[in-house]
Design a protein that fits this description.
heterodimer, A: mainly beta, Cathepsin D, subunit A, domain 1, 8-stranded mixed beta sheet, 3-stranded antiparallel beta sheet, 1 helix, B: 3-stranded antiparallel beta sheet, globular
Chain lengths: 145, 79
């Protein structure tokens, strides 16, 4: 079982001055490095709305990856102008937590962004699709099994 | 579960500190990658490579292995 973390922050909505709570569910991921048995450790946002994971450009240059082609990725705004170019491929990864639990190494399909200005997003393909996600924000408890 | 992958204790300490400070960090470093060492932000930039270089010159430690590099996303981005 891998424990996940809720990360909280907030901002003030400019018109209403209402405080908006921003809650993210995060996991620690180790992505296997190029020509090494070591991993790069990153925090990734667990995103059940993402069918595939996303990795920033610089990270993708340091890791062992299989490249399978190019594509354009769109977010909530599906306009072509909002699409960002990505490369499609596979990486090897482990998930970890602060208690020292580590999953077996696995492989997942992912998109490699053409920019560093994106968070690591952890989606379904080869990751959430392979595990059971349990979360209870009020009890501050979330894990992948 | 296997336990062959070890994560640096110092990495986790700095990681936890950043999580506790996240609201403040979103105000000061939004849209940037930050490096956290000894409970402070020692480098920040939009480019990961710039943060890595700063970390190496300041600490001689390995980014992403000894020192966490974290992306402070825009809270308005709902993903």
């Amino acid at each position: 079982m891998i424990q996940l973390t809720f990360r909280n922050s907030n901002y003030i909505h400019p018109d209403s001055r209402e405080k908006v709570e921003v809650i993210r569910l995060e996991a620690l991921i180790g992505i296997k490095k190029k020509e090494s048995n070591d991993y790069l450790f990153l925090n990734g946002i667990i995103d059940t709305g993402a069918y595939i994971s996303l990795i920033p450009k610089r990270i993708s240059e340091e890791i062992e990856r299989t490249m399978l082609g190019k594509e354009k990725m769109k977010g909530i705004n599906s306009k072509e102008v909002c699409a960002i170019p990505v490369e499609f491929g596979k990486v090897k990864y482990v998930l970890l937590d602060q208690k020292g639990n580590v999953t077996k190494e696995a492989e997942m399909q992912c998109y490699f962004a053409d920019t560093d200005e994106v968070p690591v997003i952890l989606g379904f393909a080869g990751l959430l699709s392979e595990m059971t996600l349990t979360m209870n924000y009020k009890a501050n408890r979330a894990y992948l099994d | 579960m296997k336990k062959a992958v070890n994560i640096n204790h110092e990495f986790l300490q700095n990681f936890r500190w950043a999580q506790k400070q996240w609201t403040q960090l979103t105000r000061t470093h939004q849209g940037k990658w930050i490096a956290v060492f000894h409970n402070q932000v020692i480098a920040s930039d939009k480019k990961i490579s710039s943060v890595e270089e700063r970390v190496k010159s300041l600490t001689k430690k390995k980014p992403f292995e000894d020192i966490p590099l974290l992306y402070v996303e825009d809270p308005h981005c709902i993903l």
